[in-house]
């Protein structure tokens, strides 16, 4: 959820607290604020137990980042350096698995592939999408290959006249063999 979405949800909960203070029942709060009755009843219970502060946001949900802000800065520098600088010389693509491995090597912290993906997005990176073409790419060789080799390798599609798709209609009984099922039936 975005920060704006979290702020909006908190504002709605604070409006609910004001309505509860005016002795308005949860079903009416739900109707006025356009939320489910279940949410209104849960908020009412929280409000009764701890007041309006019990409805205040506790921040973003989920587990905390296991890397300090300083480590996150270092990770961003490592990612900017590219995969080759850290041992992946096959291509210049950061995959989430590579980033998880890099985090483990550099910071001795274990991250799952999905966790590494979220962390990359948080830092402004996108896994498996190179920011630019590989420096070693030879455009002329690629063009020649597409025009010559690919044209030979690619299977040609079937010509339109070779297909058998057509509208279906009942066959004429005259066209059937005399001993075929349904022969002679009109």
Account of the 3D structure:
Helix 1 (about 5-20) crosses helix 3, helix 2 (about 25-35) packs across helix 3 (about 35-50) and helix 5 crosses helix 6. The chain has 8 helices and no strands. The longest helix has 19 residues, at about 5-20. The mean pLDDT is about 80. It is mainly α.
Class inferred from helices and paired strands: mainly alpha
Overall residue-averaged pLDDT value: 81
Measured distance between first and last alpha carbons: 68 Å
Question: Helix-strand pattern, N to C?
Answer: HHHHHHHH
Percent range for β-strand residues: under 5%
Model regions low in confidence, pLDDT < 50 over at least 5 residues = none
Work out the radius of gyration: 33 Å
Give the count of helical stretches: 8
> Main beta sheet: strand number and arrangement?
none
Shape: flat
Helix content: 40-55%
Total strands = 0
Briefly, what is this?
This protein has 186 residues and is an all-alpha fold. The protein has helices spanning 3-21, 26-33, 37-50, 69-81, 96-107, 113-122, 139-147, 149-153.
């Amino acid at each position: 959820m975005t920060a704006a979405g979290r702020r909006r949800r908190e504002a709605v909960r604070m409006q609910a607290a004001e309505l509860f203070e005016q002795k308005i029942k949860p079903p009416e709060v739900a109707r006025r604020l356009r939320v489910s009755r279940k949410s209104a009843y849960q908020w009412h219970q929280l409000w009764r137990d701890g007041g309006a502060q019990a409805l205040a946001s506790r921040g973003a949900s989920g587990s905390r980042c296991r890397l300090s802000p300083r480590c996150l800065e270092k990770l961003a520098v490592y990612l900017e350096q590219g995969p080759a600088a850290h041992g992946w010389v096959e291509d210049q693509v950061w995959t989430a698995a590579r980033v998880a491995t890099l985090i483990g090597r550099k910071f001795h912290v274990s991250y799952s592939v999905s966790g590494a993906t979220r962390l990359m997005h948080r830092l402004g990176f996108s896994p498996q999408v190179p920011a630019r073409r590989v420096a070693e790419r030879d455009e002329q060789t690629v063009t020649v290959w597409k025009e010559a080799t690919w044209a030979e390798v690619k299977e040609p599609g079937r010509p339109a006249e070779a297909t058998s798709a057509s509208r279906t209609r009942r066959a004429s009984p005259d066209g059937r063999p005399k001993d075929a099922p349904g022969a002679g039936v009109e």
